[in-house]
């Protein structure tokens, strides 16, 4: 996807060209987006009919940007007699642009400034996966403002454009005839509101406590002081997180970048308007995606524990309660994704919400337990008791498709649903070494690890917080039984590793893949097998030098640029490193942490979603996968979990245990003011000098 | 007064929906029919559901719908969340109860248990734990 300039606040964002223009074209993703809809597809500025060119672009934070523009082509820059400053920001759910025209001559001048405005009201899905779009809807001019609207039955989206200085408004835009004194300047403020209207003319969000004019609590601010509240919020967010210092700069850079990115990823849901939780990725996945929100909250727990509380409560609200084939919904199942756009509304896509993920439900229980271990927030665990029990029940009743005690998936929506209901959800991700794809249903190995972990953690919650020791005993028995069978049925004796999955007849899908690293994280691996698994993860077929590949080399489907069949994913690696640490392979965990953080420094500390699986010795540079989202939440979260792993942070009752094992390159790591049930604690670790 | 709407709420009062124990709040349904608007108040406390009819009671969430759509949602034929996204009904107040509406209504007719898809053995018939 093309690189565009952008600003955003939660799930409203604007993408444009380098001069600030949004230009409509069949595959151009620029525009103003909110509520999974494009509200502006054309926003083009001209001065006396001429396009403007950027001299500089300055984006001091994720929600504001300034363009310094001059008319004409680059060769004319030296004698520009006029310049335009275009400042824009997003807050209070609206997009505001201040245009300032400057006359640099000693004579008065006149100019015609024009903004072309239009919209195709495209569903975001059609922008991410480009298809022919056309301008549509109606246009109205009244009271000096322009209103673009799109209706389908009672569904109604409106873009409302106003200006602070009077201008001529027509159905295609706004024109200003500007007279400037010598060395003078002129300025106007344009405000664009995205409205999601009901038949009675009110915005749907307003009667639900999230008014577009007031916005969520965190973005409320006096008019005209653009971004002050957001600046304040960002400062407070950064100040509340533990402070890190490290002798190796890439770690601190990546940590600071990660905190700021996590701040930008937060959004508040209609259901919990005063709270924020992480969206899956920006800009295209600015929504609740169960797996990503849960994993990111898990990774970030030691640093920003409140994200987990909101995530858990919101996901529980959406918990499935009926059988619904189109949405792959079952009672007790946790959602994969929710969207609010036209395609979800008219059931052209199943995200209303969609439940096609078998991993989300056990991961919910994993995060609930881990959250309580860190924070001591027993009230939330009691509040979500029924949801957690229903989740555990779902595993056995609806996930165990073959009745053999494993968690399987088989999509019921084969037309518009995901093919694979695990994190590697692309169609070819689950394969045999010779490239064949197994039939359905499939039971990928990491799902079994998540179930094992969920049952063990559910047992702890049942015993300690729900006063149900009988249920706890049962869950523990089931978990132990699962571990026994799993280590027998998934283990490939000749290869010394775990099969990627079981196929429909219970046969081993024996590809060598990163998934088994998650098994260490979940604790399902029998101790005697951990060393062989570790040798594979750090061996030349899986470890590229920048991290563990999703699929090992030497197999037919392996492709260093294959989304789930060869690339290296930082989030995947962070769970693998945590797993290695859990089994005592601390040095190996450090190798992965160092490799991944080393890679991030090539991207100014912003952890990419994934990079190519080429051998490090071949490229010497981590080639990023051309992902649509940046930042990606769970990639951002990887830094935090890797840091936790290096310092060996583990809650133990009311205490935080710190047990560092730090590669020499990091030198000394200090992490101060780690919040938790212990109050605040510091963790300090020194690298162990490398052996000569 | 629609008999079909009354039947639904009588059934809901009897069977209680599928609310979680931790849910507490009130939802008022303003159901517009040929003879005007019928108002039904559903009070949820510890997952238990009580139904009363008539007043303009305050509620955490008020659902405005016509009778035909209401009945289709109540019978599981229309997904409440998609209907809300289309503005086929409107909601004032707490959005959480819009998300949980499905828990008050019948499941979609004809939906399959995942085990019955692809010839796996039939549902174990286990009771839901709530």
Structural summary, described in words:
- The complex is a heterodimer of chains A (692) and B (130).
- Chain A has 692 residues and is an alpha+beta fold.
- Chain A has 2 domains: 5-230, Glycoside hydrolase, family 65, N-terminal domain (Beta-galactosidase, Chain A, domain 5, Distorted Sandwich), CATH 2.70.98; 241-686, Glycosyltransferase.
- Chain A contains 17 helices and 28 strands.
- Chain A has a 12-stranded antiparallel beta sheet, with no helix packed on it. Chain A has a 4-stranded antiparallel beta sheet with strand order 1-2-3-4, with no helix packed on it.
- In chain A, helix 10 (445-464) runs parallel beside helix 12.
- Chain A starts with a strand and ends in a 6-residue tail after the last strand.
- Residues 211-225 of chain A have low confidence and may be disordered.
- Chain B is an alpha+beta fold and 130 residues long.
- Chain B has one domain (3-103): SCP2 sterol-binding domain (Nonspecific Lipid-transfer Protein, Chain A).
- Helices cover 24% and strands 27% of the residues of chain B.
- Chain B has helices at 3-15, 67-74, 80-85, 96-99; strands at 25-33, 36-45, 48-53, 61-66, 90-93.
- Chain B has a 5-stranded mixed beta sheet.
- Chain B is globular.
- The model of chain B is unreliable at 122-130 (pLDDT under 50).
- The interface between A and B is large, with 57 and 42 residues.
């Amino acid at each position: 996807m093309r690189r565009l300039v952008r600003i955003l606040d939660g799930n409203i964002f604007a993408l444009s060209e380098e001069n600030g223009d949004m230009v409509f074209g069949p595959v151009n993703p620029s525009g103003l987006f909110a509520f999974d809809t494009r509200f502006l597809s054309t926003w083009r500025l001209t001065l006396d009919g001429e396009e403007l060119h950027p001299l500089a672009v300055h984006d001091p934070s994720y929600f504001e940007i300034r363009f310094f523009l001059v008319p004409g082509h680059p060769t004319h820059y030296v004698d520009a007699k006029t310049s335009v400053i275009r400042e824009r920001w997003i807050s209070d759910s609206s997009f505001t642009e201040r245009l300032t025209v400057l006359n640099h001559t000693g004579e008065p001048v006149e100019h015609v400034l024009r903004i072309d405005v239009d919209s195709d009201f495209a569903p975001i899905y059609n922008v991410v996966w480009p298809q022919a779009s056309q301008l549509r809807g109606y246009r109205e001019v009244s009271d000096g403002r322009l209103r673009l609207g799109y209706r389908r039955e009672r569904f109604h989206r409106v873009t409302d454009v106003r200006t602070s200085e009077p201008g001529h408004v027509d159905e295609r835009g706004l024109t200003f005839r500007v007279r400037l004194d010598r060395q003078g300047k002129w300025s106007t403020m344009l405000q664009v509101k995205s409205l999601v209207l009901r038949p009675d003319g009110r915005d749907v969000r307003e009667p639900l406590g999230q008014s577009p004019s007031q916005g969520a609590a965190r973005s409320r601010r006096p008019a005209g002081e653009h971004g002050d509240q957001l600046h304040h919020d960002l400062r407070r967010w950064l100040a509340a997180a533990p402070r890190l210092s490290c002798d190796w700069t890439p770690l601190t850079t990546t940590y600071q970048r990660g905190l700021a990115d996590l701040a930008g990823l937060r959004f508040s849901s209609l259901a919990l308007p005063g709270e924020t939780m992480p969206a899956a990725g920006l800009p295209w996945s600015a929504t609740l995606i169960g797996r990503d929100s849960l994993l990111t909250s898990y990774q970030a727990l030691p640093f920003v524990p409140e994200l987990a509380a909101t995530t858990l409560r919101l996901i529980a609200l959406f918990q499935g309660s009926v059988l619904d084939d189109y949405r792959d919904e079952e009672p007790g199942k946790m959602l994969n994704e929710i969207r609010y756009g036209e395609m979800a509304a008219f059931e052209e896509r199943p995200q209303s919400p969609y439940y096609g993920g078998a991993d989300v439900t056990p991961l919910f229980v994993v995060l609930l337990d881990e959250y309580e271990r860190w924070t001591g927030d027993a009230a939330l665990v009691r509040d979500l008791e029924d949801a957690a029990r229903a989740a555990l029940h779902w595993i056995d009743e609806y996930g165990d498709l073959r009745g053999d005690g494993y968690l399987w998936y088989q999509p019921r929506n084969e037309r518009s649903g995901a093919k694979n209901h695990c994190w590697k959800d692309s169609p070819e991700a689950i394969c045999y070494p010779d490239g064949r794809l197994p039939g359905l249903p499939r039971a990928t190995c990491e799902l079994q690890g998540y179930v094992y972990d969920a049952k063990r953690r559910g047992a702890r919650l049942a015993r300690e917080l729900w006063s149900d020791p009988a249920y706890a005993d049962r869950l523990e028995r089931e978990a132990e039984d699962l571990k026994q069978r799993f280590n027998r049925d998934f283990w490939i004796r000749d290869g010394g590793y775990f099969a990627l999955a079981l196929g429909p007849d219970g046969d081993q899908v024996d590809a060598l893949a990163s998934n088994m690293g998650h098994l260490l994280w979940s604790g399902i691996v029998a101790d005697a097998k951990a060393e062989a698994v570790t040798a594979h993860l750090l061996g030349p077929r899986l470890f590229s030098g920048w991290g563990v590949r999703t699929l090992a080399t030497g197999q037919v489907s392996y492709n260093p640029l294959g989304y789930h069949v060869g690339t290296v994913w930082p989030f995947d690696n962070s769970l693998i490193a945590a797993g290695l640490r859990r089994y005592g392979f601390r040095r190996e965990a450090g190798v992965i942490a160092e490799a991944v953080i080393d890679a991030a420094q090539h991207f100014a500390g912003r952890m990419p979603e994934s990079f190519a699986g080429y051998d490090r010795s071949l490229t010497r540079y981590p080639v990023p996968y051309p992902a649509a989202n940046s930042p990606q939440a769970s990639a951002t979260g990887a830094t935090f979990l890797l840091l936790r792993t290096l310092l060996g942070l583990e809650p133990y009752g009311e205490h935080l245990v710190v047990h560092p094992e730090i590669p020499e390159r990091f030198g000394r790591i200090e992490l101060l003011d780690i919040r938790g049930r212990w109050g605040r604690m510091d963790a300090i670790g020194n690298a162990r000098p490398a052996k000569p | 007064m629609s008999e079909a709407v009354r039947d639904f709420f009588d059934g809901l009062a009897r069977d209680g929906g599928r609310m979680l124990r931790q849910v507490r709040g009130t939802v008022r349904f303003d159901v517009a029919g040929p003879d005007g608007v019928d108002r039904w108040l559903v009070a949820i406390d510890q997952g238990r559901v009580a139904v009363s009819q008539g007043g303009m009671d305050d509620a955490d969430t008020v659902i405005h719908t016509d009778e035909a759509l209401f009945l289709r949602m109540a019978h599981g034929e229309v997904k409440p969340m998609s209907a809300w996204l289309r503005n086929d009904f409107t909601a004032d107040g707490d959005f959480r109860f819009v998300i949980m509406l499905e828990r008050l209504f019948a499941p979609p007719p004809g939906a399959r248990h995942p085990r019955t898809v692809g010839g796996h053995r039939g549902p174990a018939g286990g009771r839901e734990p709530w």
